[in-house]
Every structure is written in C-alpha cells, then in structure tokens.
Give the backbone structure.
Amino acid sequence: MELKGIFKDEDERVFFSVSPSRSSARLAERYGYKPYIVERLASALGSLEEVEELLEWNEIPLPETIRCNDYLTTCSRLYESLAQKGFRLSLVPWLPHGIEVIEAPISVGATHEYLKGYYYIQDPGSMLPVYILEPGEGELIIDMAAAPGGKATQILQLTRDRALLIAADISRRRMKALRSHMQRMGFKSYVALRVDSTTLPSKLGRGVADKVLLDAPSSGEGIIRKDPSRKTSRDPKDLYEIHYLQLRLLLAAVDLARDEGIIVYAACSTSPEEGELVIDRLLRLRRDVEVLNTRWEGVGSRGVTEYLGLKLDEEVAKCLRLWPHRDGTEGFFICKLRKLG
Amino acid sequence: MQAKKVRVTARPASREELESLEGFLRLIGAGSVFRGDLIIALDVEEGDYVELFYIESRLHRLVLSLGAMYSGGLNLGLVDKNNGGFKPSLHLARELAPLCHGGVIKCSVLSPRGEALFLYGKTVYENNIVKWVKGVSLIVGVDYEPLGWGLGDEVGDERVIKPIRDLGWYLRKGG
C-alpha cells in the first residue's frame, strides 16, 4: 500500500517543512546543528532552555556499556574478571545486565571475555526494547531489523536460547556481524533471513508471531553523543523518507503478529516524526492495534502528544522516551503495542 | 558492469555431506550426536564449500519452505566441494566442549598463557600445554571453556598445538 499522500498535505508541510525561528537558528549555529533539528526539539521539549540542556548533554560522549551474557557466564564473574584486568566498571542500576565501562586498558572488543561470548557491546537505551518486549521461552519472535544482532542475541539470552527467533535484516554487511555474534555468544535457536522486512508477511504469513520487535532504521538523531555527524547529515526530506519507511515496517510488524500478540516499536531518535507520529498514524490506519503502557523503572518520559502546533493521538503518551539530558542515555523512543483479535 | 547475482540455496544436506560431518565427528570421538534430517546445507552457487547448519525442527521446516536463509541454528562447519573434507566451526567447538569433561571426545587443554597465545593464532609449545592430544582436537582452557580447534603435532622432541581455528577469528574476520 502506498502511504505517501494518505495524510493531509498541510500536516505533511508542518512536519517535514519546518521553518526555524531566529532563536532556534542561533542555538543551532552555536552547537553545530542544522536549524530544523533544533526547532523541532524546541517543540517536543517545550522550551529552548531545555533544548540547550539537551544540546549540552549531546556534547558529552556516550560512555561505552556492555551487556553481560548470563547464558554463558554470570555478570559478577564477568565483572570480576574484567576488573582484574584493569577495567573500571560500574553497574547500570536500571538495566539487569548493563555494565558501564568507565576506564578500559584495552579495547572492550578485544578481550578474551569478549571472544568467549561473555558480553555484547551495546548502548544502554538500546537494551531496553527487549526487556520491554518480555520474550518468553517457546515463543515465535520476529526481529525485523535484527542486524548487527544486539537485540536478537538479547532475546535469546533472556529466553535461555529457547525462543524461536527469526532475525531479519536487509544489510549483508551487518548480517555477517549478526551471525558472528550469535555463534560467539552460543545461541542456536534462530534463523537469519536477509530480506526487505516489509515483505515478511507475504513470505512468512500473517499472524504467525507471538512477538515482533521492530527497532526501526532511523535518522540517528538519538545517537549524536556517539556520532556528532548526525547533527548535520540529514535533511527534512530524509526524515520524510525515514518516517514512511518506519511506518511501512510497523504495518508489516502488525501483520506478522498473531491476535493478542505483542509488538515493540523502537527508534534511536529524539524526533517525534520517528516516534509518536509513526504510532499516531498507525492508529489512524489500523483499528486492530492498541498502545500499552510502556514504562521502565528508573528512566524515561511520556510520549509527546502536542508537536509543532498539532495534537497527536493521546494514546502516544503511553509510549516511552529516553532523553539524553534527563536519563543520561542516548535518545530513544519505545512503544509497546498489542494486536487485537 | 553489473555484479553477477550469486544464487544461495538452503536444502537438506546430502548423504555425502552428512558422511563428511560424521567422519569428522568420529575422528574426534563424538559419534552421531546430530540428527541428519535436521541438517541444512547452504550451497553457494560456484562456491568451493557447502556450509552445514543444525536447526531446530520448527525453524528447519520454515527454512526449507523458504529455500533460503542467511544463517541459523548451530553452524556445524564447511564441507569442501572438491575433496569432501570437513572444516569444523567455532560454534561446533562451543557445542561440543561439555563433552571434554571425562574425556568423551578428543580435547587438548592449554594453560592461561597457552590460551593467550592460541587466541592470537600462535603455535603453543609444551610448557603451556596441560593436556596434549595428537591430531585434530577441540582446544579448551583450564576452565574447559572452548577456544577453538587445533592440531596436536610434534616438532622434534617437542609436542605442540597449532591453531586450525581459534576464537581470535571473531576479532580478525568475524564481522
């Protein structure tokens, strides 16, 4: 189904042809951003003061974090063995398997513990969608943008390799990494498919999955702390294309889920066009899906319901946002949905 | 010029491919530990190898119905299309490592220093070998954690272990 053109032209202009105010443009210049990004952040956060706080936080590089693989070892054993090698570490209090690396004598990706599969290098916000998905043993789970494998390995870790995971992605290079991580970390209960995930319902059938995870391709506005080039690398036109790709993928995710099945949609972005607006439009297009309260103790804010002068569906407030300046993480949007029978 | 599209097929493993795997498993003393009907061969057109995967039955059916996959299940290793030889994977080493306990299969044990050398792809000499086995064996550390596959050999009077494939591969080539 062609989605572009379904929604009102004036709404499309509001979201994808933003004219920055002079104060947003000044702030953007000071921090090296394209002005349209700052203008949109001001609308999402409600004040330029808070935007400035966020931009300041985005100047602080994101600390490296690892997810201990308690399928092969225990987190305390891993912690001790890395500490003995001179690593300075700190447990992330709100993540069951998250360890922050404060100081590393050698590259985190070159230790024997890494080669033995005892951990995965993963940003903290990126670990959250799988905990929120709550994967269970015996469930058929589809990870629609699975490579390089952070969340796919996490699904199998949480289910002790007893879920049936279909890990799909279109990128050959990243699929190679997924395969390597699966083997390194000792997981077997999966099949990796290199495929355009919007075609999965026609390949696998509708209503086949107990749970579907879609950590959608994004503008990367949420990972500026890791990759400052994201301040200027995208245009509103890119955002428009990304938004519709995300919406197409999410519609496919709903098709793949069985009745009462769970879908978790996530995007590593601070942009409501990649979060709340995707959910708002999904709710307008599909009556067979509901938003569940998406919360995690210790972090997160509610979804944005008013943006650029337009009201979004109130249900999107149930979704979860991670903001770098509020949560100390990368920017992330996570929303748990249920397919209705 | 447009690159030629390479065709990759997922199909049940052939009798010859299963025999190649079985031959290797016998060599290290493992016997028949995998059900042949759950083994999928990933065959790259004009490639030199066929890759074998052991896949749980529900996912196995799915792969055969699609006739394609990128990878999945337990990666057993590669069968050389030219000579039928079998090259075991690191994934297989992890799977079989518990059988090193009690000497069920052929395993060599390295000291912590030997482990470090092995993971750098270096030959390990006698002073860093805790238990040496002649020929191909699964290599483990003193904690019996798998490190890869190696070849027990003799250089003059000295026993050595030469890496066939070590976990350092994940760093060097793993992607």
In short: The domain at 63-122 of chain A is CATH 3.30.70.1170 (Alpha-Beta Plaits). Chain A has a mean pLDDT of 96. The two ends of chain A are 22 Å apart (CA to CA).
